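Look over both lines:
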Amino acid sequence: MVFLKSKQRQQSFCYQELVEKNGMERTNSFFSILVVDDTPKNIQLILTILRKESYQIHVANNGLQALKKAQMLHPDLILLDIMMPGMDGFETCTQLKSSHETNEIPIIFLTARTETEDIVKGFELGAVDYVTKPFNTSELLARVHTHLELKQKERIIQDAYQKIKKQQEAIQQELEQAKKTQQSLLPQKIPDIPDVRVAVKFSPMEKIGGDFYDIFELEKNLFGLMIADVTGHGVSAALLSFMFSSFFSHSCHSGTSPAKTISLTNKYVFNKIEDDKFASMFYAVYNSSSRQLTYTSAGHPPGLILRQSTNEVIELQTRGILVGCFPSDFVVYEEKTIQLYPKDRLLFYTDGIIEVFNKENQMLGSSSLKSFLLKNKEISITELLDGIYEMGADFSENNGFGDDITMLGFELV
């Protein structure tokens, strides 16, 4: 039994290889048919008709024998007589369809009974067709050929589905690994910045994305704060983010100004990427001793300061083009410095949080972000980032975000 089932699977696999490699149609000798009838003359007639087509034919003389052979041989088609002593065709069909090993085998009823109720009952039990006795050779062959062809196509579809499923599983595993790799490039531990509370919200649109950030210590009392957004999202954007992150890390050194750092990053990146690929970046250096922030932007949304002492939101806006668009010789990045005070709150973010749309195709926009900052001055910096995210999600009215979301929050105490 085990050998026969294994052999049948091997034949199916060999056929599938032929179809895929040579585009060949399955020959009749690959098909097996189980004929179930208690009348020897009927069996002999069917064998005579089908053997001319080179089908592999197996015979069962009653219902119990049919069940055993169906489980053992797993034929491509069963021709099943209805009127048999003991277990009739209807009961045999019911048993075949109730077993997970045989329920997918198509069944054609052989019957001398042409009453509508019998035919309907056969279809209700799971039969795919019926042939009336006495047999018409052309009709029998046509129905057999039709259902074997359907079985063949079903098998091809199932094989293709299994291959696609395996490919999808492999892709998901690779994405999980890529996700771990991307997360390893992000800060594993936020440095302790004197008298500053830090919060981070990082939410790729897919498993991995094109946003990245870094918070690091340059030297004593000097800290680098960077956020960036590569074009697109998903795998391609994540690969680009790896490159941009690497070049940025190579460019930032103690004593190098934010504008110079971005300019160097642009220089390294420009000749390494395609023409339509680029990144926006916002980079600032915070001096914890003087509480001064020196910053520059490369086409990135401006950082925001909520100044509680004056109840205003200040934009950290500078001129500078996207990283990777033009050679550094033609690009100038503006740099500014601002004094910070106790209770100041800083927000750096990527545009995914403001470029979210509702069902009326209205965009949330930066004004809503500023209003939220002013209205929620008392909550913690972590709750503030969570609240902004929820505001965007609610605004989308279940449409979801169309891009990666990253926010860095800082609060001076």
Summary: The mean pLDDT is 87. The CA atoms of residues 10 and 359 lie 54 Å apart.
